[in-house]
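Final report, closing paragraph on structural work. Over the funding period we assembled a curated collection of sequence-structure pairs, and we close with a single example.
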Amino acid sequence: MVGSLVKVVACVALGVILLIWLFQERMIFFPRPLEHRPAQRSDVEEVTLPGADGVRLRGWLVKGKGAPAPLVIYFGGNAEEVSWLVEVAWKFGGWSLLLVNYRGYGESEGKPGERELLADAIAIHDYARRRPDVDPGRIVAMGRSLGSGVAVYLAAEQSLRGVILASPYDSLGAVAKRHYPFLPISLLLRHRFDSLARAVQIDTPLLCLVAAEDRIIPASHSRALFEAWRGPKTWREVPRADHDSVAGEPEYWSAIADFLGSVR
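Its predicted structure, as stored:
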């Protein structure tokens, strides 16, 4: 009887591990369609650019003050379709804002994955640098949640004016181990987004924005990344906010504006 029970438990455990291995993309990436196209404005341009392998990525450039203007390239969360930021672009202190949806999100083609998103970040940065209305010496990468790993990768590969990380993590593996301590995460995870390994080589100024009550990416994971960052860095914790509500707090936006003003 005991032997049979052990076999059942073992089969269930192996089944759970197999399911996670096969369907982990569905647990990490949550593509969202474009539900409301931003209203047409003279300062908003719809953009289509080729990803690393020619897949068409689509989004918007909200043009800031002056030309060429400083630019923020935004990388969103795992369930974030980025068009909503068009309406709040004024909060970026006059900087232009480039919003490109990940593969499979919005109207972008393809399927998301770590290798693809990281390669696309380089392609997006190269596209931005070639535009005559962008100052190539004043580009800041901003990543929120999942996108923080994309922004860190870009900062490790390219010279940037600054990096803004909202609800960042040390690595996706470390966060997964916190939530699923009973699973062999190191063996299962194919999309690792190991920002901690890259932070030690980055001299770019950093703003680290964390929600005080974040339970999805607890502040300890953000702090580990922050401490490893080699360049000048600023830590801002938003009180009373959690992972999903932090962008609704005035302190979030004032910290961003202050940082952009300091690196302008």
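The chain has a mean pLDDT of 90. Strands lie at 44-50, 56-62, 69-75, 96-100, 134-144, 162-166, 206-211, 233-238. We thank the funder for supporting this effort.
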